Amino acid sequence: MKKRADKKRLDGKKKLVSLTSQMEADLRLYCREKGVGSESELIRQAIVKYLAADYDDGSLNLAALKTVGSDVAQLKDMVRILFGYLRRMHINLLAYHGEIAPEYKDAALSSAANRHEKFFAAFRESLRSDPPFFEKLLHGYVTGEIDG
After folding, report:
1. Local confidence band at 76 (pLDDT 50, 70, 90 cut-offs)
2. Fewest Cβ atoms closer than 10 Å to its Cβ: which of 9, 51, 69, 77?
3. Residue 1 has pLDDT above 50, yes or no
4. Pick from 48, 29, 37, 40: which is nearest to 6 by CA?
């Protein structure tokens, strides 16, 4: 026994609703005009549409906008951190931007690594001067919220 693929299976509890003769005639006419397979299917579609209307109002849109607003605020914070880092790094590079002789390059590389560690420690310290901001970013990183 083969089922039609386009037929919806209605296996829920049956509800009895009294209709006037005019309502029944209107249902049959509407089903015929719109190509709806049965009166039961029309009623099922009407109920789904009626219930979905509660969620199509601004409440879901507002919740989505709040989420987007929160994400944008987090991105702004991240960009602020990156620009702060880049600015400090650029100043550091300009301060030590001198051409050196080849025999000093290995020593210069080692010195640069040490200076970078000092620089980054100072940068972290500057973040600590704004504890709520730093803790919020750290929380986002640890919980994985930053990754989406």
Report:
1. very high
2. 9
3. no
4. 37
